[in-house]
Amino acid sequence: xxxxxxxxxxxxxxxxxxxxxxxxxxxxxxxxxxxxxxxxxxxxxxxxxxxxxxxxxxxxxxxxxxxxxxxxxxxxxxxxxxxxxxxxxxxxxxxxxxxxxxxxxxxxxxxxxxxxxxxxxxxxxxxxxxxxxxxxxxxxxxxxxxxxxxxxxxxxxxxxxxxxxxxxxxxxxxxxxxxxxxxxxxxxxxxxxxxx
Length: 196
Ligand SMILES: O=C(O)CCC(=O)C(=O)O
Ligand SMILES: [Fe+2]
Prior knowledge:
Blueprint: E1 15-18, H1 24-35, E2 40-44, E3 47-56, E4 58-60, E5 67-69, H2 78-88, E6 97-103, E7 109-112, E8 118-126, E9 130-137, E10 142-149, E11 154-157, H3 159-163, E12 166-169, E13 176-184, H4 186-195
Antiparallel strand pairs: 1-11, 2-3, 3-6, 4-5, 6-13, 7-12, 8-11, 8-13, 9-10, 9-12
Bound molecules: 2-oxoglutaric acid and fe (ii) ion.
């Protein structure tokens, strides 16, 4: 069954979400392909995270702040990338980065906004459900909300959801995989042009 979009009017401007974006047999293939790649522990200022990542197309190194080209996005990701672009109202060619993440049990991702070299974020969830939490500072604390990320769902962050809110995922008991595609911001495009 194809679920309608979770919300007709987005809970936060710039946030959209849809279930059943990936078919079960396609999910199995994506998981098998991801398992063949050398994902490595995320590193940040000498601290090693529990989640394993691989950046393709372009990479932002959190260890040294360097942004540059990476191995190309493999052809097995091409069909899902094209559909992710369509879901987000973007051209396929705009999505120049693919970040593959494996969250093993106990791994999550802390509060952050994605790096300013990137613009749109389109994320696909595989294997198990999680909650994507959002918060935005107010005069007295935080506005907060959370959306479910079903396995095989897609979300798109742009505008306010992308720029004004932080997001995070709590550590879970069961593993989850995600594939996020990103476009470059004006700043990213400028930096990329200098590196090509
Ligand atoms: O796993 C996800 O869907 C979110 C990943 C994320 O927020 C990030 O890599 O910036
Ligand atoms: Fe993020």
